């Protein structure tokens, strides 16, 4: 049923977009009234990298929706290199698109490039990650990033029975890439839940990472969201601080790419599922991690159905082009240092072994076959 609903929603989305695009082309004559300086039907889409699984899905789905709705698109991936993304965005701006959709690598690095977009009246939507330190971003669409971390923290509390007074447990916290604006929200959401237990001694951090407050998140950040860097960091921590039979009980991993590296480290250090395998969090429901959840090597992931984010952004693109009111549902949470950016926040969802089927397969995100179910 859920899959049918999703298909119906997607078709309805395309039909409504197509209808309006048709009308916007008729509006091309007086493009200034259609909310953007450009006369073309081009939409620029800038994604951070192909090496992190989700962005491939994000880019493909959004491009597919916009093409089906009659827009022309240019979709670029920047291999997690900030300079490359700036050049890509500058090239897109030279093609004078109606709207730029940007999932930034470093949200603080795009201000100068977006100056030119503003001069050409090109509207800019920040996709998933906020663009900072510039007035030249018009809207932001993402999942509730603070809630992602909060769900991870609450899961750990429940799983360990911390709220029932259990403990102490050995915790190893990790945070996302230091240049990613989302990473601090993920960490704050989790740390606001877990820190009271660290303060009470129910959670101990043998690696001694200094985390007096969530502002210290960069002390445990893993740049580029790299699985390899997370794996070697975990190796170091186990080698240095887990001797004499001491065991890791829980790992706060902000997303799946880090969790994968951490799981490979634990495996290489002899940890066994069902014996001494720790509680491990994640995010994104990447394929390998979803399989690890089914195999008991990861406890949960916070799923963000990237299709719904693409749907929402495609709708916002169309509203901009049509010159109608752009749908937002949060006009207070995201101050980018220059202004509060009107945002649309989507709800993240916890997925565990028990509901991989109902949430990820029945909704059509994965086939049962792909997960070996
Ligand atoms: C974050 C994003 C997460 C995760 C991470 C690494 O900004 O919100 O879903 O994918 O980047 O790509």
Automatic annotation (TrEMBL):
Signal peptide (from-to): 1-24
UniProt keyword terms in alphabetical order: Signal
Localization: Cell envelope
Keyword Hydrolase: no
PROSITE patterns: PROKAR_LIPOPROTEIN
Keyword Signal annotated: yes
InterPro entries given in the database record: Bact_Solute-Bind_Prot2, ChvE-like, Peripla_BP_I, SBP_2_dom
Annotated Pfam families: Peripla_BP_4
Main location, first listed in the record: other
Domain Periplasmic binding protein: 43-324
Record-given protein name: Sugar ABC transporter substrate-binding protein
Species whose genome carries this gene: Paractinoplanes durhamensis
